[in-house]
Amino acid sequence: MKIGIIGLPQTGKTTLFGALTRGTTQVSQSKTNLAAVGVADADLDYLADVFKPKKTTPASVEFADVPGIPSGQENASRRNELLKDAKNVDALVEVFDAFTQAPSAVGLKDEIESLELDLALVDLEIVEHRLERMKKEKMTPPLERERDLLSSSHSCLSGGKALRSLGLTDEDKGLLTSYAFITLKPVMYAINITMTDETTAGNLEAALNASVDQVDATVMVLDGKLEREIAELPDIEQLEFLQEFGLSGSAIDTFIGRAYRLLKLETFYTAGEDECKAWVIEAGTRARGAAGKIHTDIARGFIAAEVISLDDFRKADNSFKVAKEKGLLRIEGENYIVKNKEITHFRFNVSH
Ligand SMILES: Nc1nc2c(ncn2[C@@H]2O[C@H](COP(=O)(O)OP(=O)(O)OP(=O)(O)O)[C@@H](O)[C@H]2O)c(=O)[nH]1
Ligand SMILES: [Mg+2]
Questions:
Q1: Best probe residue, ligand 1, of 6, 10, 111 (max atoms within 8 Å of C-beta)
Q2: pLDDT greater than 80 at residue 153
């Protein structure tokens, strides 16, 4: 799963990327920076406490920090060029500068709409091109369906609105996958402020969340520069630093958690003395598909999944043996839809 960080030049994208990676990745100012970031997870910490494994592996999400994309019609080709790096991502973080001037919800809403308009033009060009070509093609029912979808996309984009605002069904989105439309991707608007106090930041976030289109979109207000500074401190000093600023915690874990939800991602765990690991799946994934995350052989030779919720595991004194005795360890088949935060072990046979 990959998230692209985009926005106008000098809005604090690379600073935010530095905070996400805790400054561990060498960054370039002119090229797209890439890094995988572990997702903080108290439940995984809990399992690690129980099993004391040799290795604990959190779920991870990849971030791509794209250089600033200039606005305006005259910069269309440069924008298209830079946005190529944002084509293959699953979601976007759009960063806005709210630190050089005192932020206002109204002004920021305009800025968000203006960036969405620039991006809508990029998608519009693709739609127009395709509709034009379709005129010469022989229509079949699936092609007609695609053309209808592209026509409604055309009206949406001509009005300067992002495609995600159409609220398409998963099936329709599936028909449009190959176009990799940028405005169809779920988005988090990251408002980069200079932190004064959490109440003011919270109010701004609530005002913006109430005014932006809510389909596959969310707003987060944070101070990228401050987060970057916090991220570089040893854990113990981070607390002191936060207290000094009157802050209750770092915003980065919240940020990653929200990105995770935006992508409709869920977690299942494998847990034992060798390793405790959080695995990323899309909501609705079935047991065989989840097994495939671990290894294709496990999916191929799938026999059954042994499943237990974290709550039941706690009730069973943190023991699989006790869980089995109490009948809390369930055996599920390949079509079982894995639920968020279950511990799941797969039985499989490779010679199958
Ligand atoms: N005061 C303040 N300055 C910031 C903040 N975030 C970034 N900056 C400053 O803004 C400048 C640009 O930061 P970058 O993170 O490089 O911005 P960018 O969006 O990656 O820039 P481009 O990649 O060139 O588009 C730097 O001088 C940062 O120190 C912030 O939250 N507050
Ligand atoms: Mg940058």
A1: 10
A2: yes
